Amino acid sequence: MSVPIAQLVRNGFVEGIHHGSAVVINADGQVEWSIGDIESHIFPRSANKLMQGLAMVRSGLPLKDRLLALACASHSGEQIHIDAVHDILNAANLDVDSLQCPPDFPLDDVEKDSLLAAGLEKSRIHMNCSGKHAAMLFTCVLNGWDTATYLELDHPLQQACRIALEECTGEAVQHIGIDGCGAPLMSTSLLGLARSFSQFAGPQASSEQRKIADAIRQFPEYESGTRRDDCLLMKGVPGLLAKIGAEAVYGIGLADGRALALKIDDGADRARIVAGATILRDVMGLTADVIEKQTSIEVLGGGKPVGSITATLSGVR
Question: By the number of CB atoms within 10 A of the CB, which of 29, 152, 188, 204 ranks highest?
């Protein structure tokens, strides 16, 4: 039921089409606009991290500001991120060996190239979810929960994450898998994901949700990375809250309670970026330089512009 959502045009020829689904809701949770399938369940991947962060804050996690933003991050592996992960682990009196996320290179290509140039290998702390894992471990230490099994589905921490997710989305989890970082991965629909971002970003946010949203808005580079599109979007649009997930999932909430959730079927981030920006502009009525820049991605041929990647949303210019 997904629909064409973005296309790549090279020298006037449509070279590729991306299919997907998206939904925009108002502050009351009512659908204002949608395309494709917004009710079937998906794995939101890292777009679930705000709800996981909520479970940890409810369980006594005392982090705030940049460290709380990092607890909800898919970070780029920049030095600020590595230092912040160490800060969380030190607070928990644990070391890097306690992390159970898999070793990986930094998500950011610049940081990855620097690591390779230095002759270094993959590491757990450079994995983009290491901030979340460090925060999960800290939460376990504070509650006297076992740290060796913190990724098991029946662990108190993961049960708290499920409760938070179902409360925020208004939907029962239908499917459970294992995320790339090794943590349990729980499903919801795009409509449910939009509801959760409306709650965190909007005026109806609970004190714990507002604490998380404010930390991310103040320190978007810790939830993402200094060169990432979602970070630039949050810096350029006051009050906007954004979180990406692997396989081109996007959750965006606005300060007035409106929210957007989208998924690109083939997992292409280039389509996620242009579709998200176009919906913000043409459906939700936002105007900002950063939004306009993200509505189109240049296509090169021989190092020169020969086309573009743009949204092809039904009913949207």
Answer: 188
